[in-house]
Description:
Shape: elongated
Amino acid sequence: MCDMRQSLLRRDALSAAKEVLYHLDIYLSGQVQNSPSPSVDTTTLELVEEFILHRRMSALQELQLLEIMCSCFQEQSRDAVRQLIFSALFTLQGNQADESRMALLGKLVSMAIAVGRVPILECAATWLQRSHPVYCRRLARVLVDDYCSLLPGSMVPTLNNLSSSCPPFCCQFITAVTTLYDLSTEELTLPVQLLQMVVSWIRDHPRLVLITLLNTPPSSSQPIGSLDLTPLAGLVRWCVKAPLAYRRDGKQGLANGTTETELEAGPLFSELHLSVLQVLLLLPGILREKGLLGRLALLQPDQLTSLISDLSGDLEELNPLHSDTQTHIQLTLDRLAQALQVSMAAGALLCSREDLRALCSRLPHNNLLQLVMSGPVQQSGFYPHIHTPPLGYSPRPGPLGPHPSSHSPHTSFPSQPFLPSMAFPFRPSH
């Protein structure tokens, strides 16, 4: 190995990096073939750091290196070898090379999206599943910047087919961006182009957000400090917080008090909310098949606590006396109630009724939320199938929701019916 290092030192930066990649491929192919527990030794990792991550390259050389890496992953037919190569290159080691790793990783995944290199995206999905959320958010930020900021309008045509060509990456990417954009500030409110893409992915492939859960053996556990198994908690947060977040961040109001961004994003969040409820209804069968029904909470109580705390803070920033603001508040609480009811019925939220009442005690009164906190949750499988209404369909809630005379209609964030033809026993709270 010492002789190899001396040989690499005599080469130019691109040639040396290419040689290390070639060595890595041959070395790990042999490991997979001959060893029951293939791994990368320390000396090889040192070569990767010295000749790929630390050597200075011109912009042209770096582009050529990315093309070489794309070809390397594309031509390697064995997934196990590809995953090991990717791990050797981009597993964070807690040293100075990690910044270079993250920079190169962002450029490689961005290029893989642009040129449709699915093997790289599959490796990136595994990396996202195993890495700390801080670094997952950094990668997500790079991709969103590339496809929403630097190249506005390019996201839809470029990523449109990803949901069918590489579902694992899409699932992990959605999970990462829901942790990146938590709608807590204007800067952390997701771009409309990104929202459009997420909505179209989930609308066309509802099981997409469950891919990681489906592919994870029941006995295995997520690495400590990793992303959630599904993006459901983050998607619920988006849908519930959206009416208040856009109301809070709106700068330039229209004649009816709504904002231009709100008019564009409102129907998208409404469609996303309905899609999330439909996905939740798929869970009982999946969890039962894996032996996890009643044992695995995909929406954690601490996530619910954080969401309700954020809602309380957002409500304090708004003027509750404004009639249009009241419409937004009631829509937010309606969506929260719907998400809670379906999540508990589907086994995604394991929360007692008493804990739920305590958590929601700081929120304003809402008829639907009161029903959820008062009445028993129906057993899984009792709910009828929810049919997606046309995009322009904006029904008002029935007797379970606020009285129509209480609030004026609001077309920007159309309300969705809770669950058609469902009767809930009502016990007044004292």
